[in-house]
Amino acid sequence: MIARRWRGWIATERTQEYVAYLDKTGLTEYAETPGNLGAYCLTRDLDDGRTEIVTLSLWESMDAVRRFAGDDVERAVYYPEDDDFLVGEREQTVEHFEVPWSHRGG
C-alpha cells in the first residue's frame, strides 16, 4: 500500500469552504480512481491566521497513484479554484510512503 501526502495553506476563515471544495474536487477524484483505498483531509489552525490542509490518500500501488496523478507522480495535482483559496508558497511536489501494515480499529 502507498500513502500520498499533499499539503497547502489557506486563510483560517475559509477552512469550511475549502474543505467542501476539496471534497468536490480532489477527494472525489481520489475515490473515483481505481486502486484508491481511501483518503483523509486533515486541518490544523496555525497562529498566523492560516490553516494547514493535509490530504492523505491510500493506494494499492504506484500504478494506482499514476492513474490519478499521471506519469509524474511526484507532481502535486491542483484544480482551477485552488488559486482562489491557497495562500503563500505552493508546494509543487507531494510525498509518497510505503505502508508496510495497517491496523483498523473497530
Commentary on this structure:
With 106 residues, the chain is of the alpha+beta class. The protein has one domain: 2-Layer Sandwich (Alpha-Beta Plaits), CATH 3.30.70. It is 28% helix and 32% strand. It is built from 3 helices and 4 strands, in the order βαββααβ. A 4-stranded antiparallel β-sheet has the order 2-3-1-4. A hairpin with a 4-residue loop joins strand 2 (36-45) and strand 3. The mean pLDDT is 94.
This entry's quaternary arrangement is single chain
Main β-sheet description = 4 strands, antiparallel
State mean pLDDT (0 to 100 scale): 94
What is Rg?
14 Å
* C-alpha geometry: globular
Our measurement of the CA-to-CA distance between the termini, rounded to an integer number of angstroms, reads 20 Å
In sequence order, what are the helices and strands, one letter per element? EHEEHHE
Q: Specify the CATH class.
A: Alpha Beta
How much of the sequence lies in strands comes to 25-35%
Task: Going across the biggest sheet, name each strand in turn.
Answer: 2-3-1-4
CATH topology: Alpha-Beta Plaits
Helix percentage: 25-40%
Query: From the coordinates shown, what is the CATH architecture?
Result: 2-Layer Sandwich
Count up the helices. 3
Based on DSSP secondary structure assignment, what is the total number of beta strands? 4
Number of domains: 1
> Would you tell me the structural class of the helices and strands?
alpha+beta
Unreliable runs: none
Question: Could you name the key traits of this structure?
Answer:
106 residues; alpha+beta; Alpha-Beta Plaits; 4-stranded antiparallel sheet; 4 strands; 32% strand; globular
